[in-house]
Amino acid sequence: MLGLSLLKTMVLVGSLSASSLVHSSELVVVVHKDNPTEHLTRSQLIDLYMGKYVAFPDGSKAQPLDIDNDETTKEQFYQALVGMPLNRVNAYWSRVKFSGRARPPVVQQDQQAVLAYIESTGSAIAYIHKNNLTDKVKVVYRFDE
Amino acid sequence: MNKSGLLVRLAVVIGFASVAIGFLSTQLFYRLTVNQEIEIANQSIESLFKTVQATAATAAYLAEQDLAQEVVDGLSTNEVVKNVVMTFEGKSVKANSEPMHNSMIFPIASLFDPDQSIGQIAITPNIDYIKTRAEQLARENSKAMIMQAFIVTLVAIFVAFYLITKPMISIAKALHRTTPGDGSRLRVPEFHGNSELGVLVHDINKLLDKTESQFSEERKLREEIEALEKRFRMLFEKSISPIILMEPRGNILLYNSAFEQTLNKLGRNFQKSFGPLLSELFVEPETLANAVEVAFANDEIATGEFRLSSINDAESVWVQVIVTSIVSEDLREYYQVTLHDISKRKRELDMLAYQADFDKLTKLNNRQGLEKYLHNLIEAESPFTLVLMDLNWFKQVNDIYGHKSGDEILIFVADKIKKAIRPTDVAGRWGGDEFVLILNNADQTQTTQVVERLVHLISKPYYLRKYDQNVTIGASAGAASFPTDSSELQALLHLADQAMYQAKKVKESNPSDFLRFAESLIEEDNA
């Protein structure tokens, strides 16, 4: 009996984590397919997006991109990355903007614009929905890892 | 105002107490305030840190020194903060150069990973400022305390004055005015019907009641004692018998007016002492002293009749003396001497004795007195000559001129006898016209001289005024001597009578042979 209920609990927990994975797995971080960077850690990604170290591991300058007219996707990304709602991310940038050298990511209209920006700029990096993936970009970070 | 009055003392005590309590509580309050202020400062420093936490975290994350400088400068502008040092990624940013003591250390958590510390902020609290503020607070508090103490003192004095001191003072004044026995009572102060002061007044009044009744009882008792004393004094003063209280040595302690009167009678003035047992006042003080000594030795009251010696030679005063020994409570001995004047009785007794032994008419010894005297002489074996003398022609005078004239003649004869005899001799009327002379230690010559002198005086004519007539009487006498003639009184009388009879026989034939002696009696009988 005990073994059975334990098994049940494990199945339940497994299904829950699966659903969250489904949700976040919808977003992936991509770069130009010719970018030598193959993979980024979560910490490297945070430093890139929060303006601390805006470069790829090989030292080449990076250009992070934000999506302007899709608040839901943007919110989903920052929540997944630094666990902050958008307003706090905005507050962070407004603090930094006054004094710092750091600059927030460049804003693009939508995902298509983002993809286009990446295709044209080798140093760009952005987050897109998985289903918008093209062969011109390559995934360097997955939230389900 | 009375310096040791209740109100002043109360004010001083309350004032000092409030100042002391105020001082202590101010000290305590200061310490508490400092701690509290430090606590508050710590809290405010903590909240200060919280407000800059995000900025600090940002600065530390991005290693932005300018931003960090802004944060520490901002923090140090606060009064409770003395200095701030922020360290991150090996860098250190500080607000000023003040030394860091007792700093509070706050770790800076990463913005994106709260579990990760990316630096720290050290904040030094401004202890001087905190203390100054605490002092300020304490000062204000002490001001308030002093004000409060002042008000409390005033209120306490006010309440004490109107509730306690004033009624107490009024009670005390009323009590001061009250004299036990005048019937006045204390009034219960207003609003104190059931308070301790009210009870006090009730109790004082009860005490006054008790004292008053005790006073009246005592007064009654004193009056009784006074009345008794008066009676005693009267008894003592009005006593007709002198009463004297004296010390055994003779000092007179107490005496009554009767004693003074007796002294007057004796022609003396009062003196403090007349010697032991008033010896100076008595004719025979030794006898009295002996009598007292014997009586006291037998544990008796000494009594006896003694004669007082008078200075002015007035009539003699005889007293019955009663001496009582009194031992007082403090074991001192006193003599109570009472003198009863018995002079009158003594005189009466003397008179009786005189009447028994003397002849009323001639004031000479009568037969009984003579016999008594003769017995005494014989008992004492004192030699004397007994002369028996009979008047001649007296019977005729008596018959012719009456008894009164006879009595006159008898008085005349007695008068002559008193003149004729020697001072040591005694004479008396034996009865009728018979007289007796007792001549002490007299021989025949002396006897003859006395009798001759007497007969010579008697034989002179006597003038009877009533009858304007001279009468002449004569006398015949016989003498017998003790112890030469006889040592028996009857025999002596008989011998004298016989001798007189011989003389009588020749009264007319030989008037000059008027005295015969008893010696030749037996010879004559024999012849």
Oligomer: heterodimer
What is the CATH homologous superfamily assignment of the largest domain in chain B?
A: Reverse transcriptase/Diguanylate cyclase domain
What structural class do helix, strand and pairing data of chain A support?
alpha/beta
What is the CATH superfamily classification of chain A? Periplasmic binding protein-like II
Give the second-level CATH assignment, the architecture of chain A: 3-Layer(aba) Sandwich
Fold-level CATH name of chain A:
D-Maltodextrin-Binding Protein, domain 2
Strand order of the largest sheet of chain B: 6-5-9-8-7
The counted number of beta strands of chain A is 5
Largest chain-chain contact?
Answer: A-B, 16 and 12 residues
State the separation between the terminal residues of chain A, measured CA to CA.
34 Å
What is the percent of helical residues of chain B?
A: 40-55%
Strand composition percent of chain A: 15-25%
The whole-angstrom Rg of chain A is 17 Å
The appropriate CATH architecture of the largest domain in chain B is 2-Layer Sandwich
Percent helix of chain A: 40-55%
Query: How is the biggest beta sheet of chain B arranged?
Result: 5 strands, antiparallel
Going across the biggest sheet of chain A, name each strand in turn: 3-2-4-1-5
